[in-house]
Design goal:
Blueprint lengths: L2 E4 L2 H11 L4 E4 L5 E2 L7 E2 L5 E2 L2 E2 L1 H14 L5 E3 L5 H14 L9 E3 L7 H8 L7 H28 L10 H17 L4 E10 L5 E9 L2 E2 L8 H12 L4 E12 L7 H12 L3 H13 L15 H15 L42 H17 L4 E11 L5 E12 L31 E2 L5 H8 L12 E4 L2 E4 L4 E7 L8 H11 L4 H13 L3 E4 L2 E4 L1 H13 L6 H15 L5 H17 L6 H11 L1 H4 L20 E5 L5 E5 L8 E3 L12 E6 L2 E8 L2 E6 L11 E3 L11 H8 L3 E5 L6 E7 L2 E6 L2 E4 L3 H4 L4 H14 L9 E5 L5 E7 L2 E6 L2 E4 L11 H13 L8 H9 L1 H8 L3 H12 L1
Parallel strand pairs: 1-2, 1-7, 7-8
Antiparallel strand pairs: 3-6, 4-5, 9-10, 9-15, 9-18, 10-11, 10-14, 12-13, 13-14, 16-17, 17-18, 19-20, 21-22, 22-23, 24-25, 25-26, 26-27, 28-29, 29-30, 30-31, 32-33, 33-34, 34-35
Helix pairs in contact: 3-5, 5-16, 5-17, 6-14, 6-15, 8-11, 8-13, 9-11, 15-18, 23-25, 23-26
Subunit structure: Monomer.
Family: Belongs to the type IA topoisomerase family.
GO molecular function: DNA binding; DNA topoisomerase type I (single strand cut, ATP-independent) activity; zinc ion binding
Length: 897
């Protein structure tokens, strides 16, 4: 029967069920070959010849396919319908070619969904492997190899601690570092807004904001401080107001297109808190289960039959009004989108999330998101009415505006509304019935609640005019009908995985199938950390980016990377020759590599220090030299690297001055370095910084005492806030607790390499909290030691039952062991049979078990002395056991098992 090869066993199982018994479906388990991770796997000197190697895990999968082909040489390659899937099919054919006879039938089939119809239709339309797609894969793989295996060693040699550099990952890292630099350089700007609570003649209240003052339109920063804000409050509160115009305009909102890979990752991050990797993993399982279409796509087109199925599902579930007159058609605006690839959608539009039979929570949530987005994309637009009310004073000196909207028809919003990133959204306030020309009366006490809440803050109070009240960030008139709120401009937000993917997509960097792995890689290599879903560059990431921008600026350029992606797409379309693209790239890249061969590490650090100077040494408020050491005031600050690969700012006056601080230290951070904390009993107590971090020391090193008492700071202790009392406490360790009540041996409490502990003789027990070391008493110390002894290796556990003495001497006990209860006599341990409980066992039964165990030959590695001792006592044990045949019967059953 024909042999069909797919990537995963789950996919193979489903497809074999659809195809029936006439086919043999096997899994390749992904790629079967790759470039060996060593120099020379891509040879630029020989037209970029590539040496492939079959992975050790793949050999058994290839063998299974070869064995199946012995019975039928008809090979059908049914890997995923993208460039990567095409490459896997090509690798399979290359690896299997020696096993195929001349004239063997080899075909390629693709399907966008694992459903019976999709699979059977694909099998009826076989084709050959698309060589243009394979060429694009070869070019991409060679480029990534050439960059990784040539640029990473430069980093290792010139920038200690750097792990690697990648063609696209380095550009992605630069995005995050550049954003962080923007945030750090950002200077907040103050501005105020003025608001009033108004009422119609019927008593209905609404809010309005000041938009013009003294006859001129107010711009954002026209009220830059509390003084001008207070004047504006007075201007509004002292005037009569009336409605000058009411304008109601119809508006509509159209639905978003169905998902492609990048938008799915973004929305899964926003709404479900899923990282890109977790999102794609859940989507992969949904795809293999036949529930959604292929999940690696940059197309938003939907198959005509799927569009009609979605419209039918909408009509059945929500009614005719929610179905637009004609189907919605979407065209991808992204550069180089593969329009032939369909969007990510459910394979069955009628299978709503409430009917889904999937146990995994992440898959259920993701399917719910995909189904709602797909259905909403074919629904009617939402219709609303937006109302704008203009309010003025008779002298036209003050103008306010109130806005709101009324939903007339929810349309697609009944099903789905897209999440937003760092966006305030639209004003959706509801307005009462308001007529042009009517009075707008100020409502007293409207801002009392807001004022009371603001008054709880400890921030400085703004200056208020007569007849006004002030709270932190808020000014109100005495009647509390008008208020001014303080605002500050905000820096650009840090990237989330969702917004990073969106930005990469906008720039044309990377492709859908690569986003998840890129974002994961830069975190795994500790270039970037994730905190509350925000991506923050680590010191290593900053250094790597600064190095690459300095010495390889072209190759971390956004435009260059996007242009290279365009060329790869042109290769896949058959418009460019892949080896020519590689030749042009390598010619320039190899020259850039040669330019760094003579660089010294000190030279690199100086260059990076200069490049990062605005970030590392921000201008001081007093106008002083930002590079002056704040500790010794003699040395200059410069960039240094640690053995761990991190970086820090240190004083050039080292070792006399040991001032250090992190690269990303906030403004005004206290100096962390050598400083004197005070005197204790005539000794100087100092805080110092060594190669393993900060520590405290009593006195100074002398010839008589080359190693004065010192102690590292425990984890969690802040070196900048350490005082003399805490340092003396630390140096007093180990602290005597007292003699143990049983043997009189001293118990001590101290701090060791594995954390805080109590010690009794040679036995140690960890203490959870460092603070307890300074206060622990005898009762607590004995309790901690006993708890450690009862669960520690080699601890003597209490017997479950004492059976008495053995005829040859020595106690017989029933113990509880790792594999269940057992009888113990000297060095013989005999497991209890399953039908025997520790409570019911008798001495005679125990002797029988001991005898049977002693009679067994020793296991390999067992000490001969133990067996010899047990065997010497065997006759007496047998003689005693003979008195109880019943016990022997029970024992023989256990021995036989």
């Amino acid at each position: 029967m024909p042999v069909v090869v797919v990537e995963s066993p789950a996919k193979a199982k489903t497809i074999e069920k659809y195809l029936g018994g006439g086919y043999r479906v096997l899994a390749s388990f992904g790629h079967v070959r790759d470039l060996p991770p060593k120099d020379g796997s891509v040879d630029p000197e020989h037209d970029f010849d590539m040496k492939w190697e079959v992975a050790s895990d793949s050999k058994k999968h290839l063998k299974a396919i070869k064995d199946a082909l012995k019975d039928d040489q008809n090979l059908i390659l049914a890997t995923d319908p993208d460039r990567e899937g095409e490459a896997i099919s090509w690798h399979l054919l290359e690896a299997l070619s020696p096993s195929l006879k001349k004239g063997s039938a080899v075909s390629r089939v693709t399907f966008n969904a694992i459903t019976k119809n999709a699979v059977t239709e694909a099998m009826a339309q076989p084709r050959e492997i698309d060589q243009a797609l394979v060429d694009a894969y070869l070019a991409r793989r060679a480029l990534d190899y050439l960059v990784g295996f040539n640029l990473s060693p430069v980093l290792w040699r010139k920038l200690p601690g750097a792990k690697s550099a990648g063609r696209v990952q380095s550009v992605c890292l630069r995005l995050i570092v550049d954003r962080e630099m923007e945030i750090e350089a950002f200077k907040a700007r103050e501005y105020w807004s003025v608001h009033a609570r108004l009422a119609t003649p019927q008593g209905d209240e609404y809010d309005a904001q000041l938009v013009s003052l003294a006859g001129s339109k107010l711009e954002r920063f026209d009220l830059p401080d509390a003084e001008k804000a207070a004047m504006a409050v007075s201007a509004v509160a002292s005037r009569d107001l009336k409605v000058s115009s009411v304008a109601a305009k119809p508006a509509s909102r159209n639905p978003w297109p169905p998902f492609m890979t990048s938008t799915l990752q973004q929305e899964a991050s926003r709404k479900l808190g899923m990282g890109a990797k977790a999102c794609m993993s859940a989507a992969q399982r949904l795809y293999e289960a036949g529930l959604i279409t292929y999940m690696r796509t940059d197309g938003i087109d939907m198959a005509p039959e799927a569009v009609h199925a979605a419209r039918d599902a909408i009509k059945a579930r929500f009614g005719e009004n929610y179905v637009p007159k004609s189907p919605r058609m979407y065209k991808n605006k992204a550069k180089n989108a593969q329009e032939a690839h369909e969007c990510i959608r459910p394979t069955d539009m009628m299978l709503s999330p409430d009917k889904l039979r999937v146990s995994a929570d992440d898959q259920r949530k993701l399917y719910d998101l995909i189904w709602k987005r797909t259905i909403a994309s074919q629904m009617e637009a939402a219709r609303m009415e937006r109302t704008t009310v203009e309010i003025e004073s008779p002298d036209h000196q003050v103008g306010l505006r109130a806005t709101g909207q009324v939903m007339l028809f929810d349309g697609f919003l009944r099903v789905y509304d897209q999440g937003r990133d760092d966006d305030d959204g639209e004003d959706s306030a509801r307005l009462p019935a308001i007529s042009e020309g009517e009075a707008a009366k100020l409502v007293a006490k409207a801002f009392d609640t807001e004022f009371a809440k603001a008054s709880e803050k400890d921030d400085p109070l703004p200056d208020a005019h007569a007849g006004q009240r002030a709270a932190p960030g808020l000014l109100v008139n005495e009647a509390a009908s008008t208020a001014a709120r303080q605002h500050f401009t905000q820096p650009p937000p840090r990237y989330t995985e969702a917004t990073l993917v969106k930005r990469m997509e906008e720039l044309g960097i990377g492709r859908p199938s690569t986003y998840a792995s890129i974002v994961t890689t830069i975190q795994d290599r500790e270039y970037v950390a994730k905190d509350k879903n925000r991506l923050i560059p680590e010191d290593k990431g900053r250094l790597v980016t600064a190095f690459l921008v300095k010495y390889f600026p072209r190759y971390v350029s956004y435009d260059f990377t996007a242009d290279l992606e365009n060329e790869l797409d042109e290769i896949s379309a058959g418009d460019l020759v892949w080896r020519e693209v590689l030749g042009r790239f390598w010619k320039d890249f190899s020259k850039a590599l040669e330019g760094t061969s003579e660089l010294r590490i000190s030279e690199v650090l100086d260059a990076i220090d200069e490049a990062l100077a605005p970030h590392l040494y921000p201008a001081r408020a007093d106008g002083g030299d930002p590079r002056e050491c704040p500790l010794c005031h003699k040395g200059r600050l410069n960039l240094k690297t640690a053995r761990s690969g991190g970086a820090f700012i240190g004083c050039s006056n080292y070792p006399e001055c040991r001032y250090t601080r992190p690269l990303s230290a906030p403004d005004g951070e206290e100096a962390v370095g050598d400083r004197i904390l005070g005197d204790d009993n005539g000794d100087q107590i100092s805080l110092k910084v060594g190669r393993f971090g900060p520590y405290v020391q009593r006195g100074e090193a002398t010839e008589e005492q080359p190693k004065p008492p010192r102690s590292s700071l425990p984890k969690g202790w802040d070196a900048a806030s350490l005082d003399l009392d805490r340092a003396v406490q630390l140096l007093s360790l180990p602290r005597p607790v007292g003699p143990h009540p049983e043997d009189g041996v001293l118990i001590e409490a101290g701090l060791g390499r594995f954390g805080p502990y109590v010690k009794h003789g040679s036995k140690y027990a960890n203490v959870a909290d460092i603070e307890e070391v300074f206060t622990i008493g005898m009762n607590r110390a004995v309790e901690v030691l006993a708890a450690k002894q009862s669960r520690g290796r080699g601890a003597v556990a209490a017997p479950l039952k004492e059976l008495g003495d053995h005829p040859d001497g020595g106690a017989i006990q029933v113990m509880n062991g790792r594999y269940g209860p057992y009888v113990k006599w000297e060095k013989v341990n005999a497991t209890l049979p399953r039908d025997m409980t520790p409570e019911d066992i008798t001495v005679e039964q125990a002797l029988e078990l001991i005898a049977a165990k002693a009679a067994k030959p020793p296991k390999k590695g067992t000490k001969k002395a133990s067996t010899k001792a047990a065997t010497a006592k065997k006759p007496a044990a047998k003689k005693t056991a003979a008195k109880k045949p019943a016990a022997k019967k029970a024992t023989s059953k256990k021995v036989a098992e």
